[in-house]
């Protein structure tokens, strides 16, 4: 599992370099359903996007 996480982190880093306005939010208290487990995190992320428009 450690190798998979390392690969994921590397891929996220590569994606972050594709934009000059990149932010990443980690939903560390969630499973696959972030909107159920941490709805406040989703609301915050959407507000961040709207504020940039």
Provide structural commentary.
With 53 residues, the protein is an all-alpha fold. It has a domain at 21-53. The chain contains three helices and no strands. It has helices at residues 2-16, 34-37, 39-51. The longest helix is centred in the N-terminal third of the chain and has 15 residues, at 2-16. The protein is flat. The chain starts with a helix and ends with a helix.
Give keywords.
53 residues, mainly alpha, hydrolase activity, hydrolase
| DSSP summary: helix tally | 3
pLDDT averaged over residues: 92
Shape: flat
Question: What structural category arises from helix and sheet content?
Answer: mainly alpha
Q: Main beta sheet, described?
A: none
Task: Report the radius of gyration as a whole number of Å.
Answer: 13 Å
Tell me the span between the first and last alpha carbons: 38 Å
Helix content: 55-70%
Low-confidence stretches: none
Succession of helices and strands: HHH
Content of β-strand: under 5%
Question: How many beta-strand elements?
Answer: 0
Keywords: Hydrolase
GO molecular function: hydrolase activity
Protein name: Alpha/beta fold family hydrolase
Topology:
Elements: H1 2-16, H2 34-37, H3 39-51
Write a short abstract of this structure:
The chain is mainly α.
